[in-house]
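Re-run with default settings, no changes from the original entry. Doing this only to confirm the output is reproducible before filing.
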Amino acid sequence: MLHPFYLIVDDPQWISRLAPAGLKLVQLRIKNKSGDALMQSLRQGLTVARNEGITLVINDHWQLAIDLKAEWLHLGQEDLEDADLKALRRAGVRIGISTHTLDELDRALSFEPDYIAIGPVFPARGKQVDYPSLGASGIAKWRQKVTCPLVAIGGIRLEQATELRAAGADSLCVITDVLADVDPEARCRAWINATL
């Protein structure tokens, strides 16, 4: 079962920094590194997460997830074209998949993922997204079709946590609402308290 608060970070230093706040589920999404630098950052993130009792999800890099013996991997729709899902399953890697439309949801469900991410729930603040916001009603609609854990992502603020959990989201995933806050540690603690 996924922790109800799910944070995405782009640097393993965030994991070390926010672990004392009670962080239990984090995705390491690194877009600006490759080769040895990428491998080193992912290895560092996994080491810190394992030492702190945090579940770490690697974003995109499926082969590195296998090589580093990661427990979790997150794949976007475009990543499904290239990732060797059979090899990931043989390696015991659990898989989460992004969805933005009902067609993408049907496709993702055909892979029997360990969780489904739905988004954007609200207009995203951290990146340009070419899909309409789904809102709490979208979560409720997805919930009717999804039996695995459902992760809501996209433009979510702490004040919306209760509504989105009531709509059927098992876990709420954020970036900006914590990392851009003047006090990320306090905001992370507030999120954890609001979702327990």
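The mean pLDDT is 95. The beta strands are 5-9, 25-28, 55-59, 72-75, 94-99, 115-118, 150-153, 171-174.
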